[in-house]
Design a protein that fits this description.
Length: 101
């Protein structure tokens, strides 16, 4: 998996091992961000529910989001999100280990 646009374009990100988490595909993330106006993620506050690897929120941060809150119940997935944040050098994020419902 990789970041598809923004300041970290092309950077590879980690995904949790196993079949419990299925990261959002590149095409799906691209389609979701294409629905926004150009620059629509800039300075946004983003909530990434059922975050998994954090791919959607990380993509938003790469595109200029001011802050992302990741909500994920799986301990290993939360570790993966934190690992991705460290790898990409993103500071303005909160990772909450809890049920999104």
């Amino acid at each position: 998996m990789r970041i598809i646009a923004g300041s970290r374009k092309g950077a590879r990100i980690f995904a949790p091992k196993g079949l419990d988490t299925r990261p959002t595909a590149d095409r799906v993330r691209e389609a979701a961000f294409n629905l926004l106006d150009p620059g629509g993620a800039e300075d946004a506050k983003v909530l990434d529910l059922f975050a998994g690897s954090g791919a959607m929120g990380l993509e938003a941060m790469s595109r200029g989001a001011a802050h992302v809150t990741f909500v994920e119940s799986d301990r290993e997935a939360c570790r993966t999100i934190n690992r991705n944040l460290d790898k990409l050098g993103f500071d303005d994020a909160t990772v909450l280990r809890q049920d999104a419902l």
